[in-house]
């Protein structure tokens, strides 16, 4: 049996009968051959590995995408990780006949990130979850393995932060992020208040007698390693705090890749650190330049030091 899968997922599917699956393009060629050949034939060849047939990594068709419907001020997803046709361990509780299986989805993408987080925690045991997340996000890449082209979707269309967040995880860079965006428990409490939690609902989450402060902060004020402005009207500004985890004396200069139709400036343009663990603030100013844009636009800011580059995605929608 030949299954023509029009979804373009290209997911490896185990069959209990002699079968295979192909995408729509290949399926059309097969159907054309069946309809024109007097005696159509097929041959089953031994399995082989084909390298470099597609640009990699790519964002899978089934991957969840932004914008964040619950809290549009926070970019989701955070990062992309391997999740298509992954050879992984298989629980005997599911099937005692096999120890491994080929799987696709978040079930196999998440363990990649979890393993990296465990690696970071082993090297830096005092780092908080937000610090580890920051390191994973700011060291991610937007480019394919050849480093020449932006990551694409299965159709070959360039992907954007709503597809891959900060980018595809880079395990070789994560242990040396240079700067991190640290968020304390109090920061997250303030964030919950900003999105509508009252004192009672907040205390259910925190388990203490904490209450919301007045005036409530904005959701975009959470010290996250990405910046999203979903309702830009005229001008807007967002402040972030970065902590030096690189060389004690480090200097970073900023460069801006502004989203289309938006003027972006950063102040200050240089961050100079004199010790490990010291922190500096910077503010990003947004000004709507094209009021006729009705969709999200994307850009980034890059803090570049002597040894490190810290990239922060920018996502903006003009209202």
TrEMBL record:
GO molecular function: serine-type endopeptidase activity
Residues forming coiled coils: none
Keywords noted in UniProt: Hydrolase, Protease, Serine protease, Signal
All copies of domain Subtilisin-like protease fibronectin type-III, residue ranges: 221-316
Span of domain Peptidase S8/S53: 51-148
UniProt similarity note: Belongs to the peptidase S8 family.
Protein name (Swiss-Prot/TrEMBL): Subtilisin-like protease
Species the sequence originates in: Rhynchospora pubera
């Amino acid at each position: 049996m030949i299954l023509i899968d029009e979804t373009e997922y290209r997911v490896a599917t185990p069959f209990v009968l002699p079968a295979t699956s192909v995408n729509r393009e290949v399926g059309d060629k097969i159907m054309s051959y069946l309809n024109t050949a007097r005696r159509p034939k097929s041959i089953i060849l031994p399995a082989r590995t084909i390298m470099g047939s597609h640009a990699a990594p790519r964002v899978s068709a089934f991957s969840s995408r932004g914008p964040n419907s619950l809290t549009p001020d926070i970019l989701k997803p955070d990062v992309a990780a391997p999740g298509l046709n992954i050879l992984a361990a298989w629980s005997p509780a599911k099937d005692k006949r096999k120890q491994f299986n080929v799987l696709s989805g978040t079930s196999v993408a998440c363990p990649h990130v979890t393993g990296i987080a465990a690696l970071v925690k082993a090297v830096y045991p005092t780092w908080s979850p937000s610090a580890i997340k920051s390191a994973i996000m700011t060291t991610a890449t937007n480019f394919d393995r050849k480093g020449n082209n932006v990551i694409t979707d299965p159709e070959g269309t360039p992907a954007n932060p709503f597809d891959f967040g900060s980018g595809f995880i880079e395990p070789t860079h994560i242990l040396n992020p240079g700067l991190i965006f640290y968020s304390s428990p109090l920061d997250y409490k303030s964030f919950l208040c900003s999105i509508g939690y009252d004192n009672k609902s907040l205390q259910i989450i925190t388990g203490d007698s904490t209450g919301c402060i007045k005036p409530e902060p904005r959701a975009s004020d959470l010290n996250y390693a990405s910046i999203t402005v979903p309702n830009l009207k005229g001008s807007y500004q967002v402040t972030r705090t970065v902590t030096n985890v690189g060389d004690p004396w480090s200097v970073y200069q900023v460069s801006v890749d502004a989203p289309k139709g938006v003027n972006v400036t950063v102040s200050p343009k240089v961050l100079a650190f004199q010790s490990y663990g010291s922190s500096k603030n910077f503010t990003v100013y947004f000004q709507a330049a094209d009021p006729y844009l009705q969709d999200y636009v994307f850009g980034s800011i890059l803090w570049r030091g002597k040894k490190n580059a810290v990239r922060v995605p920018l996502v903006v929608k003009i209202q």
